[in-house]
Amino acid sequence: GAVVSQHPSRVICKSGTSVKIECRSLDFQATTMFWYRQFPKQSLMLMATSNEGSKATYEQGVEKDKFLINHASLTLSTLTVTSAHPEDSSFYICSAREVGGEQFFGPGTRLTVL
Amino acid sequence: LAKTTQPISMDSYEGQEVNITCSHNNIATNDYITWYQQFPSQGPRFIIQGYKTKVTNEVASLFIPADRKSSTLSLPRVSLSDTAVYYCLVRFGNAGNMLTFGGGTRLMVKP
Fold first, then answer.
1. Do A102 and B95 touch (CB under 8 A)?
2. Interface test with B, best of A44, A45, A46 (most B CBs within 10 A)
């Protein structure tokens, strides 16, 4: 199947700093990308959906000013966690799909905020 | 979107067949049923998808009764490496967005 990559795979940062996570579709053009968050022993929770070139649609309860999403090209979306706090520590997973195509998930990024 | 309900956990032994049932009582006419597998600290991986009756691939089989209010993922002859969390999702159409993950079923395969 198609490949979706994420970078970095894990990041540790101090409280108050901002962290950027990249999601790339390696062999297809992703018109839609999704960002999920997963806490330990819990299921994936959708944070936002973004279409290339337009603003992301955030799920209820997700602060758009804190979780900045940029889907500037058909192969790249970024999630920036601004002013990170320990409660933002989680496993962040992106997903990408092309028009009418299957949805593929990235390997995830483990964020730890100290 | 239809809500899904699965057992929280299941135990099995190597070589056994494992059946995980998911209920989706309010599934809509255009909804498809999709199953994903997730290992710790990894993204979900597609296993199988179906609309009705039975679907089989090299990894698993999916059984869907006529009323489509439930589905059963069947894993033949599981091995230790099949220990993972399995998610049942309902999506609109055969290529709808994966918006809602339920709780999943944590399968533990023992030697």
1. yes
2. A44
pLDDT tens for residues B55-100? 999 999 999 999 999 999 999 999 999 999 999 998 877 777 777 7
Contact check, Cβ <8 Å, B98/A45: no
Give the dihedral sign, CA A55/A39/B107/A9. positive
Lowest mean pLDDT among A79-88, B8-17, B30-39, B89-98: B89-98
Closest CA of chain B from A46, distance in Å: 6
Query: What distance in Å separates the CA atoms of residue B97 and residue A97, rounded to the nearest whole number?
Result: 9
Report how far residue A75's alpha carbon sits from residue A82's, in angstroms, rounded to the nearest whole number: 23
Q: What is the mean pLDDT of chain B?
A: 92
